[in-house]
Amino acid sequence: MLKMEDDQFERFVGLFSMKDEDFPYNSQVTNEIQTFRKQQVDSQLFFDVLLSFIEGIEDPSSLYPPKSIDDLQSLFMIIENSNIDELKQQCFYYYLLKDWEKSETYSEQVSLPKNYQHLMDGYYYLDRLKFEEAINHLLLPDVLPNFPDKIIETLYSNEKYKFLIRFVSFVGPPLDTFRKEECYALSLVRYSFLASYHYMKKCTKPLVLWEEMIQLILESNDTQSCKLIVSLPLSQEECEVLFSLLRSKKEPLYLNTLLALLVESNNIQEALELSSNSTHLQKSAVNTYLHKLNSLSS
Known about the structure:
cytoplasm, mainly alpha, elongated, 19 helices, 298 residues
């Protein structure tokens, strides 16, 4: 451990405590933090990523959570002697002091700007997979999250699709990779197929997203979106992908949508052949309409 000067020791004691009974990182808390770390998409806490900006830190996970007061002093000295500015140091201490339930008092003592408090609160709650609390802090005015890629991936991998949509809509991070486009489109499609479809058309790999969107709504048995698909002015490539997927299974929603699509595209003969070979389709409303349509054209 680096040797502390007297003024540094006073600051340390003023921030934390030298009493063992005050030390919050017991085995239960330590295990919880390590579990949260393993559940992160890249096995890194947001605090790990922040610590990695300090020159010389190669393994942030070995520093947090500290296993003893000596370890905490070592982390304190690394931050104190680091190449980062005072405001960033205060942000690190604010995050650590949340574990000690002293962060609010500290922020008042050093006049830590509110937007930085909310930013660190957001990261703290993301690290603990408390997504609603995290988003409520990260979407406040003047808060500028600086790890949008990790935030998007974290929300998507934890199936927090509404929060992801809110984050993208409010913060407006550049969706400049296919993975980010994919996370957003496949979140959006769960709530608005039409909005997701229009977004998909502007993406770098629209047909790949189109196939993923169709698979998702079919697998989730989203009948309303399937009805909407049939009425869309699809391109030839989109139609080919759609027909291929619909013909891949004999499940009811696949068959219903395929029959409706064949009727809509005026492929009456193929629609009649499909319905005649399916007991399920013979009972459908689309089949009744199909036979009326066929009798009128005969």
